[in-house]
Amino acid sequence: GSSTGRRLLGGALAGGHQAAGIAKAGLQVGAAASWLVMDHEHPFVGTASGDTLIDRWIFALGDQAIRDVIVRGKKVIENRRHALDEEIAPRFAEVLRKIQA
């Protein structure tokens, strides 16, 4: 049967599309595309494909597997760094200080 990771990913994508009001998923002419690029040099990524890769990503690797993220055609993460890292990091640290106080 289908892998657990594939079922979870499919459900998450379907729910995200529904919440965002996207009627039809997939690549479409004229539509803004979003995707991620996995790090093929990571041993868990470079030695897997298909459902095995999805399972490894979801259950073992998390964000370690992701190199780049493109959202609606705009690269927001490149080489594991968010475009706004320098702005986000100090604000995040401040939030953590407030929570821990």
UniProtKB/TrEMBL annotation:
Domain of life: Bacteria
Entry-linked InterPro entries: Metal-dep_hydrolase_composite
GO molecular function: hydrolase activity, acting on carbon-nitrogen (but not peptide) bonds
Protein name, per record: Formimidoylglutamate deiminase
